[in-house]
Structures are given as structure tokens and as C-alpha cells.
Amino acid sequence: MRFLAVIFLLMFMWACSPRSFILKQVTKSEEELHHHVGFALYDPQDKKFLIQHQSDQYFTPASNTKIFTLFASLNLLGDSVTAFRYLPLGDSLIFWGMGDPSFLYKNAYQSGKAYQFLQSFPGKLYFAATNFYTEPLGPGWAWSDYDSYYSAERSAFPVYGNLVEVKRVGEEFSTTPAYFMEHFTVANQQRNREEVTRGLDDNQLTYFTGKKSNGEWTIPFRSTTDVVIDLLSDTLKREVLEAPILISAEAKTLKSVPVDSLYKVMMQDSDNFIAEQLLLQCAALVSDSLKPANAIKYVTEKWLADLPDKPRWVDGSGLSRFNLFTPRSIVVLWDKIYALVPQERLFSLLAVGGQSGTIKNWYKNDTPYIFGKTGSLNNNHILSGYLRTRTGRILIFSFMNNNYLAPTNEVRKRMEEVLLTIYNKY
User: Fold this and answer.
1) Domain span at 204
2) 327 and 401 part of one domain
3) Is residue 323 within 8 Å of residue 312, measured between CB atoms?
4) Contact status, residue 349 vs residue 356, Cβ threshold 8 Å
5) Among 12-16, 159-163, 308-312, 393-397, whose mean pLDDT is lowest?
6) Cβ atoms within 10 A of the Cβ of 90, count?
7) DSSP, res 179
8) Using one digit for the tens of pLDDT, what is the confidence trace for 215-257?
9) Helix/strand/coil for 210
């Protein structure tokens, strides 16, 4: 009888433990919303997992892929990104783009160094695009998103973030850059909503009347070599020519903006364009071409071979549904980053619950307790990062939700309940 009483007491204590209660919260959400949930909670001080639910299963990570891009960049890029490489030849200058996303991009910090360097060079300018060996759109991206603002093309020398802004004031239209007004037309056709679309294979912009919107649209443009040269000539107010010359080992390097100014936008606002271009920057440092696969292979083999589960990592932003990671591998990656970057700097780069980024309106608390990165695609929502408990303890978590049909806000509410419980119980 005493033995049975002890067993009963232990079972009762386990059932009342924080771990048991949190697992019940996680599985209840999975059962009621009929979707797939993976969860892992890890203590970086004791180097052990506290809670796991399907943490060894693969999930579509969406923008949690940017955590991998951040890790690669932290290890490779130093304190500033590279604007371009250049080679003076007599009275001429040949320059090769290195994927710097900041050049005239409104969402990025502007140092002006690259612009001033090119604008003030006394001789002729020649742009060479011979080091770009990848498709403008990534593998597994939705083709129909080609004219959506979050799907800007990848390129060697992006200008204006490879985006064009269209504005309507009354009956008057304008584009930024102004270069694209020559590609703008107003259709004699009405749609359900007012919109501006772009041609699939060109930069033709077409306005359709409809139910009025706010009169502003942001659309990716096709970033061909000719378009880059035209845009540079237009904005620098001087002629830029093409030079189909392979990059020279003697080429010099011009540095651009501080890396943290880009990391912050990538991680807090989930900027896909910056993520893709940073991965191109990494590729340029480990190979002779701007090819994301080169960076992914190098980083995976050099620093990520010890992840619990081999990642399927194909792009920089997470737009691709080909990416596949497990919750426990994401947690281990966060642990590597935590060991690499001082906490004050790291947390300043991330979205903060109730305060900044994509979780500004969620996970509110008198004392911020969630510092991390979201990921969202249709029917998928992810959050992972660091949780600072009521007692000040730092834990690492990954919460992955795939293939649900419920409203995303309902999924977020369930996640918030679980993470708040951890905050209070640990």
C-alpha cells in the first residue's frame, strides 16, 4: 500500500508540474485546431531540453529561415557590408555589385558612401554583372507573388531595394524612382479593387480603377543589367556603361553600412529582400560568385554539422516552402547565436513582444519577456527565440505551427498562453 501511495503521489506531482501543464496546453491546441505543432524549450545554462513535443519533426519555417541567414552573416560579414568591388583602369572605373541591399533602399540606413564614391569619380563608370549566378526569384517561391512587395528580386547591384513606389494624388500619378513613369499606363478597365500590377516578364505598370485604396503601391521591378545601368545613370546624373568583364583579383573593396542596421530590419520587420541580399553577400565571401547555394553549403558544413537534425535550407528569407527545419535544431541554432553575440546587442536586433517588430501587438507584459523571430506563410505560423522568465532566467524556445485552417490570430492566442505560462512558472 505504501508503494502504491508513493507511485500515486509521484504521478500526481508530475501531473501538476509546469512541464506537464505546458505540454497539455500545446497538445490541446493541436487537437482543437487540427494542425501540426512542434515545440522545444531549452535551458542554455544547463545545456538541456526542458520540454519537447514533436521537436524532431520537420516543419515549414517561413521567416524563421532568417535565423540561419543571421547566423551566416554574423560569422562572415564583419561589422559592415560590402557596397561593391571596383578596379580603376586609367581614367575609367569598373565595378561589380556584391549584393548590398542598402543602396537607396528606404528601409535601410543610408551612409551615402557608395553613392558619393560613384558620383564623384572623375572618369568613366562601367558596371559588370558577371559575378551574379542565380535566379532573381528563389526556388520554391510562389510565382504569383512576383509583383508583391515582399518578393523583390535578388540581384548583384540592387537599387531602391529593387522596388518601385506608385502614388496617386487625385488623378495624378507618380513613381519613385521617376524612371518607371515611362512604363506606366492607366487601363480603361475597372476591377473589384483599385490596384497597380506589373507584367510578368517586364516592367510595364498598369493601373486599374476600383474601390479606392490609400493610393500607394509598392511593386518589385525586373532588375536586369540594362535596368540597373539606366537607374544608376539616372540617379547619379552621369553615364554608366556596361563592361562584361570577369571580376579581377586585384579589385578593391568599398564598405557600406553597419551590419546591425540591416540585421535589425531583417529580424524585427522580417524584410525578405535584405535577408536574400545578405546571403548573397555571404556567398561572395566564400566563393567567386553571388550564388546563395554556395553560402548555404559552406555555413552548413563548417558550423551546422552538429545540429540535431540536418536542415533543408534553400534561401535567405524563408519565402520558399522547400525549407524544412525541426524545432530542436532551431533552438540549438539560437544557442549558437547566444554564445556568439552579447545579449544586449542580440536582443536589440530582435522583435520584442509588446514593443517592436512583428510581435509589437502580441506578448505584452510590464517587463518584456519575448525576444525572437516570427515566421508566417499561409496556414503556417512560427515563433522562436529567447524567453526571459519572471525570475530573470533565459530560456530558448521554438514554437512551430503548420497546416492549420483556423485564423492565425487564434493560433497566436494559444501560443501566447503557453509562453506566458513558461514566463510565470520558470
Assistant:
1) 160-222
2) yes
3) yes
4) no
5) 12-16
6) 7
7) G
8) 999 999 999 999 999 999 999 999 999 999 999 989 999 999 9
9) strand
